[in-house]
Specification:
Blueprint: E1 9-10, H1 16-25, H2 30-41, H3 56-65, E2 66-67, E3 72-78, E4 85-90, E5 96-104, E6 107-112, E7 115-117, E8 132-135, H4 138-152, E9 158-161, H5 171-182, E10 194-198, H6 202-211, E11 216-220, H7 226-232, H8 241-255, E12 259-265, H9 273-282, E13 288-294, H10 308-320, E14 325-327, H11 341-353
Parallel strand pairs: 1-2, 6-9, 9-10, 10-11, 11-12, 12-13, 13-14
Antiparallel strand pairs: 3-4, 4-5, 5-6, 7-8
Helix pairs in contact: 1-2, 4-5, 6-8, 9-10
Length: 355
């Protein structure tokens, strides 16, 4: 696996088997690969020099021949409201990505980005403003988690791939990332503690289902009808809602994992009692969970959050129809908590400074 804009192989994106092949090709014993893998994925080393039980000559060879991914901390914000931490990380090519650490009773959860920017164009999301720059490598997804563990000294037990980017638009790198993250020789995070979000790339949902992983699939639904969904999510013009829901049913059939439907509530757009009833009818008979998300205000968008009474009324209608519903706890609102906001603000400042 090559690093972006580099001829060098990116070691942190390799499986243990692939790493062993690389190391033995250099004339080293196979156990050196296990040591190297442990330094990268358990001890979370930032560079080869930290790997003190590897011979100096071997480390010099690695430095010369292989790329090593370790993010640079650009900015760290801590919420005064709930302790949520938001990070802006610098990549080697000068791009920046953002990640979020949320602390719950069940453990620490990290929300990571899968792309630099996003091309899906969802109307209420800051991540899509400016479009897609590039995909992230598996190592660049992993090191968001590793960097946060290094910085906090706290273990991450849950991972949500729901930051900037459409994960299934970076499918091959995502799949490799999931394999590495859950590998018993690395952080060994349980598949059941991982959630991958998608706006509905049906062919990729079906492909992921056939992997038979035990991760949770979260579909960004956001509307109870095809027409309304097309207004909010341009990607809906390519994927009919009925096809998306069929793919979700297939995911459940193949994995036994119920699908979570993410529904951003926007006042005056999709938050009425009738739309709640329409949503309940749409999902009738599906083994699923509905996660209501009071939309985060984004300066460039006109959408506003419903008041608490309207949110609870929407939830109540769904529950009366027999649906399992939660309202996502708002976290990090005072630190640009919405997807893409911190990165966008940083980019605007950088552009102004270069004028």
């Amino acid at each position: 696996m090559k690093e972006k804009n580099s001829s060098k192989t990116d070691l942190k994106s390799l499986t243990l088997e692939e790493l062993t092949a690389e190391v033995t090709a250099l004339g080293e014993k196979p156990f050196r690969a296990r040591q190297l893998y442990q330094w990268m994925h358990q001890k979370l080393a930032r560079d080869y020099e930290e790997m003190t039980n590897l011979p100096k000559a071997f480390r010099e060879t690695l430095q010369e021949r292989y790329a090593f991914t370790a993010h640079t901390l650009v900015e760290r914000r801590v919420s005064k409201l709930d302790g949520t931490e938001k990070y802006l990380f610098g990549l080697k090519d000068g791009n920046v990505i953002e990640s979020v650490l949320m602390r719950y009773q069940f453990g620490n959860s990290v929300c990571i980005s899968s792309q630099v920017g996003c091309r899906m164009g969802c109307r209420f999301c800051a991540s899509t403003i400016g479009g897609l720059t590039r995909n992230l490598l598996p190592s660049e997804m992993l090191d968001q988690i590793y960097a946060i563990q290094r910085l906090t000294g706290e273990r991450v037990s849950h991972v949500v791939v729901m930051g900037t980017g459409e994960p299934l638009d970076n499918y091959d790198n995502l799949l490799r990332f999931l394999r590495l993250l859950t590998d018993e020789h690395g952080l060994h995070i349980s598949q059941r503690n991982i959630t991958v979000s998608t706006c509905g790339l049906t062919e990729r949902i079906r492909q992921l289902a056939e992997e038979k992983l035990q991760i949770t699939l979260a579909l960004s639904l956001h509307a109870p009808s095809q027409e309304k969904r097309k207004e909010l999510m341009p990607v809906a013009s390519k994927y009919e809602l009925s096809e998306v829901l069929d793919a979700c049913r297939y995911y459940f059939e193949q994995t036994g994992r119920r699908v979570t439907f993410e529904y951003s509530l926007v006042s005056g757009v999709n938050a009425s009692a009738e739309e709640a009833r329409e949503l309940a009818r749409l999902l009738d008979g599906m083994n699923c969970h509905i996660n209501l998300i009071p939309v985060n205000p984004v300066r460039e968008r006109k959408y506003v959050q419903p008041d608490r009474r309207e949110i609870l009324a929407f939830k109540n209608v769904l529950e009366k129809c027999g649906k399992t519903v939660t309202i996502r706890r708002e976290m990090g609102r005072d630190i640009a908590g919405a997807c893409g906001q911190l990165r966008k603000g940083y980019m605007e400042k950088s552009e102004q400074a270069n004028l």
